[in-house]
Please model this.
Amino acid sequence: MKKVILLVAFGAGNVQGQRMLRCFDERVRKHFPGIPVRWAFTSLMLRERLANAKLKSDSVRKALHKCCFEKFDEVAVQPLQTIAGEEYADVRDAVGEVAGQTGIRGRVGRPLLATDEDVRRAAEAVMRHLPETRGPDEDVVLMGHGARHAAVSRYGDLDAAASLLDARVHVGAMNGAVSLDNIVLRLTSRRVWLMPLLSVVGRHALRDMAGEHAGSWRSRIEAVGHECAPVLRGTVEYEEFIAIWLEHLEACF
Model:
């Protein structure tokens, strides 16, 4: 069987995000020597922007059809979504559709927080990658994207699991799950650390989390008397999170 790996991300429109996806690509190639790696991006806007810049910009369906054209028999698809929400379901639908049309064998790896065991490991990963200069009495807030989907409850599960390990670590999401309004009520330290629970640093991390406009998480936390210290690193930049992604990809084979 001629195998290929297809990594799927929302996309990255900034230099840091693109660089981190390339670093993750290198880790995958090292972990699976000899197996080609391809990419697909779910954001139409980012695909159009990359295409205008003469950069690779395949959708999931287009990437899968290219794999068929290259005569691959089996594709292991690993999305970099945090939860099994609508975007993850769209990836699965695309794989099933193209497999039915072409006969290629496709398997889709789990998102970061698919099972209770994933949540437990992710909570431990958070603990291992807290800011080195953070004081033991300082709060840390992680911001996820969230979704209007039942799987959004995984953010609440991670919040609970993280709190058991460190009561000053809080996990919320922009949409659904644990809201910032609820988290603010728990904050007691003068300085509060902000970290994105997103695969790469993009618009959500830069604007919605760390931005200076009134609606950002940073501004809303500072408005009630705290100082914020944003950490602009995505989950694909941390070794413990990478290990979870790689194990999910291994399961595809």
